[in-house]
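Figure caption, in words: inputs first, then the predicted bound structure.
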Amino acid sequence: MNNLNKTLHAARFAAEKHTGHFRKGSKREPYINHPIEVANLIANVALIDDEDILAAALLHDTVEDCEVSPDEMTEKFGQAVTDYVLEVTDDKSLPKKTRKMLQIEHAPHLSYGAKVIKLADKISNVRDVIASPAEGWDKQRRQEYVQWAMSVVEGLRGSSDQLDELFDEVVALANEKLDEID
Ligand code: ZN
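Bound structure (zinc ion present):
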């Protein structure tokens, strides 16, 4: 498979697996908008054209949220893609607090590809927390989310200057918006 074909195959597969899923936010966007945004940031902001990283970006939430098995993923997309996805997959058997702490701890030890995916993921999520916050997420909860994302990103820096910069811009904008809320 060439570069583009593998990426499109991953997009189609992720779209099928996320069918009926929506983002948590008030806009109720189809979930697939999120992995597409993550892959797009990697391709068009970080200017990375590695097919395995792009495919893994599109698939990054399918093991965690859609019960796709690593074996199925490897069969369709190869071991490198599965490895990236598993690196950014939380162990859902752990309590949420532990999972969030482990993301901070693991970030500096991720591979280059996984770092880039996680960084783009955090950009997309922080944008959403501001543009389309989940119901019941008050100012404090949103501030805590942004703070936590910043702690994770501390461990990811250096993998893409463009994404590092964009993350800082998105956080600055988020804080500005949050300051406007009393
Ligand atoms: Zn994600």
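Residues 158 and 164 are 7 Å apart (CA to CA).
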